[in-house]
Design a protein that fits this description.
Blueprint: H1 4-11, E1 20-31, H2 34-46, E2 55-63, E3 66-74, H3 81-90, E4 97-104, E5 110-112, H4 155-158, E6 176-191, H5 199-202, E7 205-221, E8 224-237, E9 262-267, E10 271-285, E11 289-296, E12 328-336, E13 342-348, E14 363-372, E15 375-384, E16 387-398, E17 401-411, E18 422-436, E19 439-450, H6 466-473, E20 483-494, E21 497-506, E22 512-523, E23 526-536, E24 546-550, E25 556-559, E26 564-572
Antiparallel strand pairs: 1-3, 1-4, 2-3, 4-5, 6-7, 6-26, 7-8, 8-10, 9-10, 10-11, 11-12, 12-13, 13-14, 14-15, 15-16, 16-17, 17-18, 18-19, 19-20, 20-21, 21-22, 22-23, 23-26, 24-25
Length: about 575
Amino acid sequence: MKRPFLCLVCSLCLGCGQDVRAEPAVVIGSFSSLENATALQNTATDQRLIIPVREVRMVQTRREGQLLYRVVLLALQSSDIKALQQTAQRNGYEGAWLTDVEAEVGSTTVLDNLGVDPFTTAERARQPQRDADPQRVAPVTQEPAKPLLPLYRNGEQAAQPRERTWWLSGWQPKGETSLTFRLKGFTSTADLPATDFSRSYLGSRREDGAIDLRTMLEREVGNWSFELAHTALVQYGKGLSLGHMGGEQIMVSDDLRLLNLTEGLNEGSRHRSLHRLDRFNARWRSDRWALTVGRQAVSWGSGIVFQPLDPFNPFSPTAVDRDYKAGDDLILVERLFENGHDAQLLHVFRRDEQDSVSSEVASTAAKWHGYAGSVEFELIAAKHYDAEFFGVSARVPVGPAVLRSDIAMRRGIGQREKNEDWGVLGIVNIDVAFPWRDRTAYAFAEYFHNDFGLTELSSPFTSVPLDLQAGLARGEFFNLMRDYVAVGGSFEWHPLLTQQLTVITNLHDSSSLLQMQFAYDVGQNQNMQLGWIGSTGGTGDEFAPISVGALPIGQPITRGGGDRIYLRWAGYF
């Protein structure tokens, strides 16, 4: 797998004298650059425990005189090819499509016997859509995959490692039904600085934890599909009495959603349990159109750590549990065009604080996704919480790396006191995956700017501008100031062990937030993550303890800072 040139040479040897046979395969990428194809091949090889396959291979074909390199997945059994395609789509390869390849019996040679190439990268724009594989169904809800760094990949696209499909017995109707489960445990412990405002109640250490079982049911019948995901969750920790947990566990409320699909079961001073439906939707798809109605997750933009173009429940920069992004109650219409471009029209329903369904708290957005040469771009226009929102995103390959930029223009954020001034949020990032000593390494850098942030923190820190308050309260912002740089990466020490490191630095006060994590596959269908989050900076800096007041004797009262250690285990059944 690490010798792609040998595979290419073998694929040209038509006169080897061996029998050949056709077998189905899943295409996850097609490139004019051998270097880019090799990088994807190596990445997919490292994911073989996440996407069970017999082999990951590279094949070549010619299209209108151009030599192209495809990366294909071969199923453990030919009958599993459709399930392999669906698993690949849920693990970041949304455009994965089916084709037939010819394999020499008893050899490693694979020959692509088709000249059809609907592309999932920027090169797809050069291909006529009329030549698309007839089994390809478009468009798809999820956006192109984020970089495959476990800490920062898009949760919904990352889907579940080694996911198994359970066929419901008793009948065999037309269509497919799958039932899958994820059981997760999480615990964290954090030091509280001596001046922390909650130390008198929590003591010198804060300990939190959670256990949850997610049950996922999917049903496909013809052009229709139905999805339901139920979560039973138990949380514990002293922090519950203060109205918040340690920060890694995402606690979603349905109070302001259209449908309240969350029900509390039991609650005490240090524990609570509940169950909820996080997915509850129906979807219809044809070759050119798709319609989704119900609770579903939507992700826009191409940020790695920060998400200026994604106001729909984005993950916190330090969130550990990114398996599934929180869903919204929505209607989504999608359209794929002949030139490979696609469009989305989205409306998210919400309730206001008076429990009324109101357009003032809803979101209506349109997005155009297309290609211009080697540049992949998105254009967004929206009315989000009754305020205008415009965005543009671009992605371009730079050698083996990918350079991206997202820019959003927003007219105010706060609801109570309208701000007619426009603000700009944006990111520029670059990332690259590369082999090193027969292992896979990944590195990235990202700059983030937010016009609605502060340029300096007052001491003591007692007030936040209304726009910033609104963004923090809605979970669209996670930082107080304007300019940040995030750098990091991951390295595969062993096929079962990966280390990630991320450093987020505030450019105004030079304080930093550091996150290091080890991810280990402890067994089949099981993964464990051990991590640490710490900070650097002086008193009053954002990532150090922030002064929020003072005692009568003059001693400061602070919030934040301190080190945190966490442990997460997840099993997939």
